[in-house]
Amino acid sequence: MFTLVRQSARLTRVPYQLIATRALSDASGMPLTFSSPYDVFYNQVNVKQIDVPSFSGSFGILPKHVPLLAVLKPGVVTVFENEGASKKFFVSSGTITVNDDSSVQVLAEEAVPLDSIDSQAAREALSQAQQKLSSASDEVSKAEAQIAVEVSEAIVAAVN
Question: Which residues, by range, are in coiled-coil regions (predicted)?
């Protein structure tokens, strides 16, 4: 493995030490910033792991994860805290960034703790979104209604 790492370092002109240390785990966790325009859930708090929904599939992030930029799809973000607790949040969309220093930023358009969502209200919102989609007359209205249906379906799935 180290031969391949050394060859990669020569090809990319990245110092070998930087690549070699990325593979080591960090027992203290990784700094997480998780916010929406309305709330800040974590601000540079060390956590063990984060599971996120993405259009390329759900995936987990551990300390020393490779740098990454991804788009969040509607779904559940799970944060595993260092103390052992896990917290779940529904996000409508957003981005996730893992930086070179292993810090992670989750920036959500909308995010709410999963346990604060009323399942009956979620089903009613889905029904209303489906009605709007069926009665939409122009392309913009159809696209907006389709997004509302997809988000509402994800909320209903998350709370059930």
Answer: 119-146
Residue in 22, 13, 14 with CA at minimum distance from that of residue 63 = 22
Same domain, 149 and 71: no
Integer-rounded Cα Rg, in Å, for the chain is 19
User: What are the tens digits of pLDDT across the range 114-156?
Assistant: 999 899 999 999 999 999 999 888 999 899 999 899 989 988 9
Conformational region of residue 84, where left means phi above 0, alpha means psi within -120 to 50, and beta covers everything else: left
For residue 103, the one-letter residue type is: S
pTM: 0.74
What's the number of domains the chain is made of? Answer: 2
Q: What distances in angstroms separate CA 86 from CA 22, 78, 80, 136, one per listed residue? A: 25, 7, 4, 40
